[in-house]
Amino acid sequence: MSNVKLIELPLVVIFWSQEGCPHCETTRPRWEEIAQQWSSCIPSARLRVEEYEEAATTYHVRSLPTLMILRFGRASWRKLEGEATSEEIQRFYEAAAVGMDCAIGAN
Questions:
Q1: Interior CA angle at 89 toward 83 and 95, to 5°?
Q2: CA distance 87 to 74
Q3: Among 49, 75, 99, 105, which has the highest number of CB atoms less than 10 A from its own CB?
Q4: CA triplet 62, 76, 67: central angle to 5 degrees?
Q5: pLDDT in tens, the chain (107 residues)
Q6: φ/ψ (deg, to 5) at 63
């Protein structure tokens, strides 16, 4: 994902985190597993707020971690903020996939 401009993608899920954030470290492995399951349909990227402060401000990241859907670089209204369970993350990806031809995640 590092060579792809996220704003050019029709859909991407962003996992916003910060170094030393305990809730981020708890949620990250759950997110990574589910993001991998959906990777053939929905690209995902992890961004650290300390590395992308301007973008975090632009996208109104107010708590960490935050899962966010970007559609052609615009934030959707749907966010998942704070520590999340695997079930919550799975439902988030399912919601992101609405209207797409994805047969992933239900397995």
A1: 135
A2: 25
A3: 49
A4: 50
A5: 443 466 667 889 999 999 999 999 999 999 999 999 999 999 999 999 999 999 999 999 999 999 999 988 888 878 999 999 999 999 999 999 988 877 664 44
A6: -140, 160
